[in-house]
């Protein structure tokens, strides 16, 4: 322009210093970086007017690896402690993981424009069960048991270039181990053994044995241990029987000093050799010091108990426990001894009784449903034939003393009863009015 225009440069509408200006309206940006990206404007102005022109500067940055991925940390915290995670790297990252668990694989890359990420497995597109999270930058494998030996890789691409990063998962195997041994069964001698304990391990840690049920179990053999001569020690036999069953007795046993060798033989030693190790056990001791007791019974009482049969009654006596010197003690102390009887059956003339019945009386009616007849029932002594108290005959059922009779329909609706019937019963019989009070069928 005329006069010559003055040029001013702006970046994102902010004026730039004049030190970067060149002649002929040029602006020099040396060593371009991502921070130089933006909208650049130049304004040319003189006395006659001004004009502004703009240009957008885009700085491309090829994909590059990052040391961490914030999105992965956020997803991992919500997935729980059972989920493992790993970041891919250009050289390849390895992670060991339990079978059946889940894994998160992060592709930590950056670039401008934002790289597009493609996941591969052994160089091929993914076919196993998975999910893509965080705009594809996180691959979630939901069951690592489905993955065979292979390598996961993420391919990051934009207009400036591409980058491949890799990660591999090593699936842990459950396996049986018999490396842990029980304590030795003996400290010396010839019989000490240790038994291997079968354990199911995963990455060196013991887990429930159900995880190893599909694995073949190893053959376990006992391992000899502590096969050496034992120090001298006292050997004792079992105690003999007590010399007394009660009142204080003595029992004995044999005590010797011996040494068990690694070959299993027992070598006699002097008592002094064992005395240096431990005190000599006793070879006698008291036994059965409890007092001697017995059951004592008084003489039988009279045979006058309740009758239980013909001429058969019950008699009683007292039975108690006491010591040999006559001191009464609790019956529990005699419980090991056979206890004498405290009751028994006995013969007595008092129980020689039976039920005596008379003949039935004439029926109180000739027809109808109200006729009955009775008889006398007494408990009498067999020998004297005299009545006694009825409870002496209670060991036998008491015969019935009345019954219904002549239960047939009446032709003219009349029946004979009351005192008229009683008047015709005969000698020794009871009429209805005399016998009936308090008893059916009145």
From TrEMBL:
It comes from the Eukaryota. Its main location: secreted. GO terms for biological process: extracellular matrix organization; proteolysis. Residues 1-58, 90-170 form the Ig-like domain. One of its GO terms (cellular component) is extracellular region. Keywords: Disulfide bond, Immunoglobulin domain, Repeat, Secreted, Signal. Transmembrane segments: none annotated. It is found in: Secreted. One of its GO terms (molecular function) is metalloendopeptidase activity. InterPro entries: ADAMTS_ADAMTS-like (IPR050439), Ig-like_dom (IPR007110), Ig-like_dom_sf (IPR036179), Ig-like_fold (IPR013783), Ig_I-set (IPR013098), Ig_sub (IPR003599), Ig_sub2 (IPR003598), TSP1_rpt (IPR000884). Pfam families: I-set (PF07679), TSP1_ADAMTS (PF19030). PANTHER family: ADAMTS A DISINTEGRIN AND METALLOPROTEASE WITH THROMBOSPONDIN MOTIFS PROTEASE, PAPILIN. This is ATL1 protein. It comes from Urocolius indicus (Red-faced mousebird).
């Amino acid at each position: 322009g005329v006069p010559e225009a003055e040029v001013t440069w702006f970046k994102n509408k902010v004026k730039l210093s004049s030190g970067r200006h060149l002649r002929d309206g040029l602006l020099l940006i040396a060593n371009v970086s991502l921070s130089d990206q933006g909208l650049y404007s130049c304004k040319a102005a003189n006395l006659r007017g001004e004009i502004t022109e703009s240009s957008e500067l885009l700085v491309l940055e090829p994909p590059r690896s990052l040391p961490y991925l914030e999105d992965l940390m956020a997803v991992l915290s919500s997935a729980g402690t059972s989920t493992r995670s790993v970041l891919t790297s250009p050289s390849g990252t390895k992670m060991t993981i339990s079978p059946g668990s889940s894994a998160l694989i992060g592709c930590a890359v950056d670039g401008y424009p934002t790289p597009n990420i493609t996941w591969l497995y052994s160089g091929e597109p993914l076919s196993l069960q998975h999910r893509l999270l965080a705009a594809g930058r996180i691959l979630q494998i939901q069951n690592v048991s489905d993955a065979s030996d292979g390598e996961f890789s993420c391919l990051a691409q934009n207009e400036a270039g591409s980058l491949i990063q890799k990660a591999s998962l090593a699936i842990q195997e459950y396996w049986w181990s018999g490396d842990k041994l029980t304590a030795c069964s003996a400290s010396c001698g010839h019989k000490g053994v240790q038994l291997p304990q079968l354990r199911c391990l995963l990455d060196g840690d013991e887990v429930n044995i159900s995880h190893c049920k599909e694995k073949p179990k190893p053959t376990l053999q006992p391992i000899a241990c502590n096969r050496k001569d034992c120090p001298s020690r006292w050997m004792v036999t079992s105690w003999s029987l007590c010399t007394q069953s009660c009142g204080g007795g003595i029992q004995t046993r044999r005590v010797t000093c011996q040494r068990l060798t690694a070959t299993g033989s027992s070598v006699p030693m002097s008592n002094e050799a064992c005395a240096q190790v431990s005190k000599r056990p006793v070879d006698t001791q008291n036994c059965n010091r409890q007092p001697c007791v017995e059951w004592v019974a008084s003489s039988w009482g009279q045979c006058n108990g309740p009758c239980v049969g013909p001429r058969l009654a019950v008699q009683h006596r007292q039975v108690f426990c006491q010591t040999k010197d006559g001191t009464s003690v609790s019956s529990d102390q005699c419980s090991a001894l056979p206890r004498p009887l405290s009751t028994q059956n006995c013969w007595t003339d008092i129980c020689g009784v039976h039920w005596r019945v008379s003949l039935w009386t004439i029926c109180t009616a000739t027809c109808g449903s109200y006729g009955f007849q009775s008889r006398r029932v007494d408990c009498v002594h067999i020998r004297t034939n005299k009545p006694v108290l009825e409870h002496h005959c209670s060991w036998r059922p008491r015969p019935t003393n009345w019954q219904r009779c002549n239960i047939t329909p009446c032709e003219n609706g009349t029946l004979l009863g009351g005192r008229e019937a009683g008047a015709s019963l005969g000698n020794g019989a009871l009429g209805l009015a005399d016998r009936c009070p308090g008893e059916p069928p009145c």
